[in-house]
Amino acid sequence: MGTLFDARDRAQVLERIGALQPDRRPVWGRFAPAEMVCHVSASLRQALGEYEAAQGRGALSTWPLNWLAIHVAPWPKGKTQSPPEFLAVKPTTWEEDLARLSALVGRFGDRKPEDAWPVSPFFGRISGRSWGVLQYRHLDHHLTQFGA
Question: What is the DSSP string of 23-83?
Fold first, then answer.
């Protein structure tokens, strides 16, 4: 399983971010490319403790379901509801938003799994290792959505 704590996985994600096109249609879902970039950026900012999101209390916010959802289970395409805060950030310019996303990926990877991590609004309290896998899978999911 990939993780943003692995330099090779992170480099691959950054290369795929660089391959995104602002006019690409999604393979599934309703995001436009610029909206998706803002969405995954908000998720990374929340993981870094820079963006507040309401804490969910669903079944996936407890162990072992959260661990299974992050590390094992396939992710549905276009079926999951994001925290509203992850949809509230609006695009600025394509170049600025991509640069911001790339910087966030780098900053996330500079941290350590052993560091203190916030509570996930969707998955509850998770380990740093799970945060690395979660953010990698989230980015992979949405980059695949746009063929990158």
Answer: TPPPSSSS--HHHHHHHHHHHHHHHTT-S--PPP-SGGGSTTHHHHHHHTSPPPSS-PPPP
